[in-house]
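Lab meeting, item 3. Inverse folding demo.
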């Protein structure tokens, strides 16, 4: 009987997309965390020297206070060894609950980015449009040569969770530039990126060592439900967004067929 059940399970697994075999570097569901400071839980450590206003866990969500300066940032280590053409994806399921006190047209400092051991690249922030709506913004690298650029989607503060996924692709350090794609609320694995950026400066040549969450000069109050870092879009999507209907249907069909096979073989045993 055990062998028959194993056969059924293996059959179902053959129908699951190959993304399930992707490398996953971080998969954080904050509903499993204890209320209180984030730093000190599950490998999260302090980033930079500031210790005031620690990032919090409250009610199963990570809470980052807006309108803060020189307050605590956090990081979680990961190991990603890059080569030319490789892509690292990271994404969040989150709510942007308020714009702080900054006026319209203010782009906050980043709330997250990838740390390469010396610098935080692929930074993500928000552009406050009018105090009630905002756009997701990103910069690929550097400060002046790569300013924040916003995706066209206009979102409302304090509404439903927003899904943000970024894919950073390494260039070759020479003629092929680094690129960054950003998706806002993707609904399927085939959705085109909402924003694409190319590195205008020196190519990023270092390996990623951590994901950083930053409150420094960040203007928006946010709560993060889930986050993921992986080497495929589909794996990141599966953690931070609702899977596309086609995949859910495929899994349901596979599970149903597998269960039928197992029941028939069990009856024959």
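The presenter then showed the designed sequence:
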């Amino acid at each position: 009987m055990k062998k028959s059940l194993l056969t059924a399970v293996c059959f179902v697994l053959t129908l699951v997309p190959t993304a399930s075999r992707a490398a996953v570097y971080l998969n954080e569901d904050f509903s499993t965390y204890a209320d209180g400071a984030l730093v000190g839980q599950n490998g999260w450590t302090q980033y930079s020297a500031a210790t005031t206003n620690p990032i919090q866990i409250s009610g199963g969500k990570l809470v980052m206070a807006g309108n803060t300066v020189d307050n605590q940032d956090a990081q979680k280590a990961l190991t990603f060894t890059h080569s030319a053409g490789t892509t690292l994806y990271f994404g969040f399921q989150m709510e942007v609950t308020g714009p702080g006190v900054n006026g319209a047209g203010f782009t906050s400092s980043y709330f997250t980015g990838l740390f390469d051991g010396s610098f935080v690249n692929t930074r993500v922030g928000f552009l406050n449009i009018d105090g009630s709506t905002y756009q997701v913004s990103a910069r690929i690298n550097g400060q002046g040569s790569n300013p924040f650029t916003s995706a066209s989607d206009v979102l409302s503060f304090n509404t439903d969770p927003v899904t943000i996924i970024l894919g950073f692709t390494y260039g070759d350090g020479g003629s092929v530039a680094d690129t960054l794609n950003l998706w806002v609320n993707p609904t399927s694995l085939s959705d085109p990126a909402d924003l694409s950026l190319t590195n205008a400066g020196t190519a990023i040549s270092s390996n990623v060592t951590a994901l950083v969450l930053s409150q420094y000069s960040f203007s928006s109050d946010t709560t993060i439900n889930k986050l993921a870092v992986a080497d495929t879009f589909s794996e990141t999507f599966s953690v931070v967004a609702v899977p596309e209907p086609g995949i859910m249907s495929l899994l349901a069909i596979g599970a149903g067929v597998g269960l039928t096979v197992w029941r028939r073989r069990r009856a024959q045993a």
